[in-house]
Each structure stands twice: as C-alpha cells, then as structure tokens.
Hints:
There is one protein chain. This protein is of the alpha/beta class. The protein has helices spanning 10-15, 34-45, 47-53, 56-70, 82-99, 128-136, 156-167, 182-186, 207-226, 243-257, 261-270, 275-284, 288-297, 302-309; strands at residues 76-80, 106-110, 145-150, 171-176, 189-192. Helix 3 (47-53) packs across helix 9 and helix 12 (275-284) runs parallel beside helix 14. It starts with 9 loop residues before the first helix and ends with a helix. Residues 1-7 have low confidence and may be disordered.
Amino acid sequence: MTATPHQPDLRSQLETLATEAFRPELAEIDRMPTLDIARVMNGEDTAVPAAVAERLPEIAAAVDAVAARMARGGRLVYAGAGTAGRLGVLDASECPPTFNTAPGQVVGLIAGGPDAMVTSVEGAEDSAELARADLDALALTPDDTVVGVSASGRTPYAIGAVEHARARGALTIGLACNSGSALAAAAEHGIEVVTGPELVTGSTRLKAGTAQKLVLNMLSTITMIRLGKTYGNLMVDVRASNEKLRARSRRIVALATGAADDEVERALTATDGEVKHAILTLLADVDGPTAARLLEDSGGHLRAALATARG
C-alpha cells in the first residue's frame, strides 16, 4: 500500500518512536568485552524504576478505579501483543495462587491466542478486529477493566481492545512506553512510562518490557491490597496448592497471630486451610463457621471482620 500524508508507512511511524531510536554510541557494542556489555545493560536497567516513578499518580488513579469496579464483581483484563501480551498473561496467571482470585477474575489476552505465548503468530498484533472478537468472547460489562499494553503505543490489537472496551462502557487503561501515544489517548487512564531507546535497537523486551512488568505488578498487587486480599503485607488469601504454599500458609498465620505451631495447625485444620479464616479464629477467638460469616459480611476484609468480632 502506498503511504499518504494521512497514512504514513510503518517505517516512518517507527522512526518517530523513542523506543525504536538508534543509538550510535552503542554501534560497536558487539566488539566490547562481555563484562562491559553487562555493565552497560545493567546501567540501562537502573533508569527504568525512575521512569515508572514519574507516572505514580496516574498508576494510583488507575488502581483506585480498577479496585472500585472489581469490588462490584468486575474483571481485570490485559490485552497486548508479543512481549506486552505475554507479560499480561503472566501477571494474570499469577493472581490465583497469590491472591486466590476466582477463575476468570484476572484475564490475560495475547494477540494470536495461547500459541503466541511461545511462538510468533504472524499478523495478529495488526488486527483490531481480533481484539474485538477476543473481548466479545468475555461478554464485557461496565464493571470490567481492560488494560491495553504496548511498548510503542501504536499496536492495533491493544488500541482496538481499548477502543472496543470503552465503547462497551468498561474502564480502560492504556500502558505505553512512548509519549503522545495513540493507546494512552484512546484510554480513560493513559500511563506512558518513557524508557527511551533500547540497548539493542527496537528490542522492547528490554527496558520497555521491564517497565511494563513493574506497572502490571502495581496494578494487580495494589488492587488486591485495596480489595482486602492482604493483611498488612501478608498474603492471607494465598491458595495452598502445594507443599511450599502450605508451609507459607502456616508461616503467615504465625506471623499474623504470634500463635504457636500447634495452635496454627489446629486453626488451619478447623478452617480447611483457609489462611484468612484461621487468623480470624485465633485473633478473635471464634470458631470456623463464625469466622467465615464475619469475612463474608465484611466483603473479605480481615481488618473489618476483626473489628466487628471485637465489637
């Protein structure tokens, strides 16, 4: 297709993006000693948290908006292509074991579907229509949130997801690593973490990918804190699905209550291994069914349940 003044070709678009910029001072990097390359790369990475720090007010505002909707039963949905999509799937997949989220409560969509997690699916990222189809399969509601993730901020799949979600009344967040991005502009909450040119030109799995991972960590983790999924900094909704997590559950109950090991074991046994319930039985001196009722009445917030139990 021939480019027009209103539709510049992709090469011209990429040349305007900071994440795609060429760095002449690194043109000889392949001739450097390995340790020197590692030092340069490590130095590059140290700039990422500072770039994220500049966007903390926008991140916090987005978290509060997400938490308000998830408290009403809404879902958190990530949508991206390539590295951005994989990071969204990763974050979503870690929420059930960490915070005991329900199946489908946090969803990661990647352009091209599950196969794209391990291999390139040609053309998938260029399809806004594919994003719309993926979201329609979820039957979005106004209580849901869709986070479009794209380093460039121009990926059609991510932009299409945000535009479609917004038209359906869902909350939308656009996470990009370039300023003035179409993705951030399309979303209700735009978050642009500008990480600059990469060590390897255009390889946005590097600084941009790290920045996206940090922001997604914040979006999901702080949202879960707001929803009462932690007690202080303890993972009281952890799902004990293996021996390591069962040991962690016992340690969490002990840290929260100061109870002896035998008391912790009895409390976990009485509450079918539910950490939050076990803590409540110990701190409020109630039985398992009472703990379950108090937590249900408090929307799962342990501090509120404790306050009610203590009068």
